[in-house]
Amino acid sequence: MNRSTVHGATAAAGENPPPASAAAPAAIRLEGVSKSYRLPNGTAFEAVKNVSLCVPQGDIFGLIGTSGAGKSTLLRLVNRLEHPDAGRVFVGGREIVALGKAELRVARQSMGMIFQQFNLLQNATVFDNVAFPLRIHGKASPGDVFRRVRECLDLVGLLDKIDSHPAQLSGGQKQRVAIARALAPRPEVLLCDEPTSALDSETTRSVLDTLRNVNRRLGVTVLIVTHELAVVRALCRKVAVMEGGEVAEQFAVDETGPDRECRRTALGRELARMAIYADVQNDLERLDAAFA
Amino acid sequence: MSPNIVAILPELWTAIGQTFLMLGIGLSAAVLLGGPLGVLLFLLGPGQSLERPALFGAISWLVNTVRSFPFIILLVALVPLTRVIAGTSIGPVAAAVPLSLAAIPYFARLVEQNLRDVPRGVIEAAHAMGASEWQIVRRVLLVEARSGLVLGLTVLAISFLSYSAVAGVVGGGGIGDLAIRYGYYRFQTDVMVLTVAILIVIVQLIQFAGNGIARRLDKR
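Output (structure tokens, whole complex):
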């Protein structure tokens, strides 16, 4: 890796020293990334301000925040759908910001992404949608494509819909097809942008089960942006709370003890409250069981 | 059958053939040259992946300018160019040159508009999967916009069926020319009615076929 040249190019953002944790290899590492937009009235809006973040390999990592907090922008910086103004982005040890156009396309093949609106090809069958990334990468033979598509659809439990069109599927099924499509090229990381926000609670559960299954069985690192705390509680191991373009705090979702009592953000405290309620609920159920 | 109609019958078959020849050449040029031009206009446009405001403005201005010409003026003004391309300035093949030149920017606009209807998110998802611009055009834009493109081509075919009537000015022939020469100049109302009836049937058939194909292609 050409670290020296990269470093020189982004020296302006060098306030944050790289964490360089040798223990758990990071699947995704952001170092001092910033991104601002020009608003229609000519002023600049800083969506992401000097954020550093480390997502360990194999983790399910949540990004939460109110709307406008910059969480979606941060996610889109990872696969460079947004180009950062400053800072460095590493995915699987590869510096994403420094890549040329063709190299970026290759790097994106190892990053799956799913969206709130699913973004499937409406005029293509489920099979063709899942085959899309394999075909554009152009390395798989038709036979390999066929086998891999069936494998992925089996994993999300939609093998029987292989010849349907997206319009014939429910929202939850569409999102699971999108997950199968994201997984087809065997990505190292899966980026999820509000994947359940367009779904009702029943189908949300099926999508979350699928994501958990994907993480557990394939070891894919999942980075998920959501505003739903229930999603974080059901799925994530770690979570970062964003406020005003910055990471206000990070903690483990199942964290206990004194740290849980002194969270800095409203969303953090809300998650702590939900965890305490769940603990109390468990205790009550245990008591009930003991007296029964 | 009226003697007027019997008299023009042999010419009628030639005229129908000429109309379809002009239409065929014009529409082929529209699809082969106007199609890529429309895709280019879309990709260079505001907010798209190859955004180039200056180039977009220049192409857009050119498209508008060609489309501003009344077709009959274009027909006459292009005579020197027609001589170079077709080798002659009269006949249906010669008339197909200005017809093509008018059809190319027309179809380019129709293509651009239809591609704009493809949801941004779908294009973005393809980018996120590592697709190149060319792959996005071929595997996303043309697939998602295909039924709209067929309907656009239908509109174009019907417009240019009537444009082809003007080609009579340069001896282009065709059904419309027949209607003008016999029906209008010689007051043969029965010929006029027949030719217009034939045009009505052709238009209905084109629209029917276009709608049918578009419906079958649309899985949204």
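Residues 1-22 of chain A have pLDDT under 50 and may be disordered.
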